[in-house]
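SEVERITY: medium
COMPONENT: batch folding queue
REPORTER: lab tech (J.R.)

DESCRIPTION
The queue accepted two submissions in a row. Attaching both inputs and their returned structure tokens so the on-call engineer can compare them side by side.

ATTACHMENT 1
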Amino acid sequence: MTKRDIAVAVLLVVGATAGCSSSPPPVTPRPGTLVSGTAQISINGKDAGTTEAVQCVGAGTLTTITTGDSTSGVTAMVSNRDTLKAESVGINNVGGFTGSYNAGLGGTAKVAMIGPTYDITGTADGFATDNPSFRTGGTFAIKVSC
């Protein structure tokens, strides 16, 4: 083997290694969808942030969606029995609001799916976290990709 052959072999190995070590391109979700395992929440029209603490558990026609943790988060139950329907939405200390929506007990909620992303919007009864003595209503918009 000549010095030229060795030099070419070294360059090929270095080039191949460099190509394998580059990071993957960033994931860009389709419009209206989120990256899997993320949630975006708005309360009373104000952005309450994005979280990667998302868990979705299916049981028959119901899916339980949980975001956040025990101090701040959302738990929603969505049915797909005949059509998508929000059975309940519980909001715990998100965006300064704690409250709930339960089908048939007042308030409204709608669910749509855009690709793998649930889009849940509606109204809830509850209270402002900083003033829990007085009941108030709130609006919510929750996007979750399981």
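ATTACHMENT 2
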Amino acid sequence: MKKFLVAAAALSCVPGVAFAQDEDQGANLFDGVRIEARLGYETPTVSGDGDVYKIGSAVSYGAELGYDLAVSNKVTVGPFVNYEFSGVELCEAADCLDVKSNLAAGARVGVALSPTAAIYGKLGYASLTIEASSGAASASDSKGGVYGALGVELSVSKNAYVNLEAAYADFGDFYGTGFNLQRRQASLGFGFRF
């Protein structure tokens, strides 16, 4: 009789365990505060009259901070801000044009494709800092514009993730020249979610 009661008690726990597992599987694992390190390759350009001219191409590196709020078991929305340093430099004799950094901020929307994979899009504002130098004299200025990005994110553990992202920013007219300044970038991120 005791064995029967123990077996009945054990069986009564199974539905509760199954329900808890179903809840875990339905939870959105892409929500929460996150911080990530970013490494990219960027190409700032100026375009006009049907032509595109590269200022240069180089490695960029920086970090991003964001908060993703689950609005369903598949969709997240939230703010982000990232700051990246640039290695882009264009020189002719003693005259140089350096892209120093890029700041971007805005909103991110993500959609989970599976428990460990999601796609996301970003839209916001970006500010690119450029320094011009000639000999010992130098001056810097920032240009602001529209920023957008598309990416895919993969969970590598409960709290760690990697992502691959393509971003584009348009900063408008390049100092009254009639040419528009843009930034194109592909980046790899590694982050933690809390």
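NOTES FROM REPORTER
The mean pLDDT is 86.
No errors were logged for either attachment.
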